[in-house]
Amino acid sequence: MTTLNRSAPLVLGIETSCDETGIGIVRGTTLLSNTIASSMDEHARYGGVVPEIAARAHLDELVPAINAAVTEAGIRLSDLDAIAVTCGPGLSGALMVGVGAAKALAVALDKPIYAVNHLVGHVGADLLHSSGDASDTGPLDYPTIALLVSGGHTSLLLVRDLVSDVELLGETIDDAAGEAFDKVARLLSLPYPGGPQIDRVALEGNPKAIRFPRGLSQPKDLAAHRYDFSFSGLKTSVARFVEQRQDAGELVPIGDVAASFREAVVDILLTKALAACADYNVPRLLLGGGVIANARLRQVATERTDAAGVVLRIPPLSLCTDNGAMIAALGAQLIMAGHEPSTLDFGADSTLPVGQIQVSGLARSLGAP
Amino acid sequence: MLLAIDTSAGTSVAVVDLARGVIAERGEADTMRHAEIVGPFIVECLREANVVPADLSGVVGGMGPGPFTGLRVGIASARVFALGAGTPLVPVISHDAIAYGHYRRGHTGPLVVVTDARRREIYWSAYSEADAAGLPVRVGPPGLAKPADLDAPTWLHARWPRLDAATVSAGELGLVAELTHAHQRPFAANEPLYLRSPDVTISNGPKRVSR
Ligand SMILES: [Zn+2]
């Protein structure tokens, strides 16, 4: 192994934690390829991600996706400085496909490997820009609050340093926000994935028509769960409303339900995120995760951060959903910060804590029973 | 020279060569640690065999049958290693390696290879003999069955000697590939043999929450 290029390393990132097979290639903070193969359509008839279907799709898509990414980036695999891979959190069987593949690629190419945290990767996505374009928003200012919202996670982080100091402030104690969108869409007989469908029908609805509950926002809940989220009560409340109308033989006002539900989700997400900004005196908020594609969330986020004097950063949507480029970006940051590679004996960890930005391997395997 | 990887049962990695046989091999029967150990095993085998990826003429992947989660780790590793090393992937059915090893150790005639499929089911393959090249002749598919199905007297291979295997040797997998290539036989398809659909149920819509 030759000396690692630590100024602008060429890194290939592999992301398989959920239903997107993501292969990204970056050079430092420059994005060269963001190749994504999604198995979303295969999950549609089940109303949610089926882990075994996702894992099978990863195995099928990996080699074509790597080839496509390498072609798009205009590089050869042998040019790479390092491999980065998501080792958690996520669906365990899905993660293992990426972990096995990444290790094999690292050994075949004789390159170092960085096993990284998926959630921290979402934050790293914000650093990427295409070469020579105006989208370069510069380095992240620290500290920043990060709100990561998808079908798999809903987490609020305090990022003091991307590669060395990320703290979990709160997370969902039941469903992820994206899951709540999917479940409510089903209650309204709308197809999967629920987010875009709710957005569509909400256009004709009144967000103030129904006052749905904001989970974990009562004083008694705030004591223990100031930055945690809960969406199962909200979902149940929507279900009860729909059933009452149906039982009474009335038409369900789908637009109003969708708009009011969405308003409740957006409200609680941003209320808690901005509370964190205020409590920690951090005037910066970064959004990430697939649910950021929701137009209403972005709109309210802009309004409320403006009002609060908080600087809002939202990566391009193609980098908000799960992708390999953000994993490559985090790997590149670790390299540029002088971190040593992971040893080859790390595993997939479906519940990897967010504070563990990189898994070195050796420490974990020694601690394992 | 070939690198061979199989995770259809435990994890096994080997470097083999037609002339020299199994040059290096690592095995672990634990079925929970495929993703952790596959990387170190590859490194150790290459080092012990004193080869670099560019020396390899192919990467052999055990296609199963095997329980999905583990099986995929080896296939993903083999496919991507082959891509990285710029060498062909050589798919081999894992049961063929088990049968090959058993014939090589002296067994003759019919043989049924059985491995654990979990959930109180088993995978099986039936072989009539080893041919002149030493390759097992598979006459019954890799199949999925309840244990009782193979005990039924009406089963096609009911009276055949049965070998229950808990591990697959990547060394033997690699030698099957070498012999298959040397004798110009067809390789298996580059597809995992799950032999089971993903178990998912389509729900009949949301459950009521109010009484
Ligand atoms: Zn994610």
UniProtKB/TrEMBL annotation, chain B:
InterPro entries: ATPase_NBD, Gcp-like_dom, T6A_TsaB. The keyword Transferase applies. The gene is tsaB. Keywords: Transferase. NCBIfam families: T6A_YeaZ. Gene3D superfamilies: 3.30.420.40. It comes from the Bacteria. GO terms for molecular function: transferase activity. SUPFAM superfamilies: Actin-like ATPase domain (SSF53067). GO terms for biological process: tRNA threonylcarbamoyladenosine modification. Pfam families: TsaD (PF00814). This is tRNA (Adenosine(37)-N6)-threonylcarbamoyltransferase complex dimerization subunit type 1 TsaB. Residues 33-127 form the Gcp-like domain. The keyword Transferase applies. It comes from Cryobacterium luteum.
